[in-house]
Amino acid sequence: MAFLGGTLNTVGAVFLTHAVYSTSEHTATFPHAPLPLDITLELLFSILILSAGIVLSSPTLKPIQWARWAGRIQREGPHGEGKWTREGEEILSEGDPFGFLGLDGGIAGKGEGRRGFWDVRGKRKEYTEWVKEGGSR
Description:
Blueprint: H1 2-29, H2 37-57, H3 66-76, E1 80-84, E2 90-92, H4 104-108, H5 120-132
Antiparallel strand pairs: 1-2
Helix pairs in contact: 1-2
Keywords: Membrane, Transmembrane, Transmembrane helix
Pfam family, one: MMgT
Transmembrane segments: 43-61
């Protein structure tokens, strides 16, 4: 389908270029006359051909399963690769598409995560344990 999509994109771009050139020449020659029907139809035809080519040449869509992914990260936590950045933060695995944000501590509830961000679930757990111990310092 990529070849057919590329061919349709090329043909559509040629028709679109010709329609734009024809429109430019028509408005330069007859500034106050309406656009002829053949130029309008060529423009619409080129847009339809380009749209079909873009759809056919695009990659297949992936199913939307962010809720399932977020649940797995919540249960298992992020998995490190054993590599570290210059700032001393661990690089997360490919399984976490938002790992570059460094929000691992906030998502999985293990650690503080990115500097400057507060782990709400971790603090809630600490507070619950503090209350169970009697709430004294």
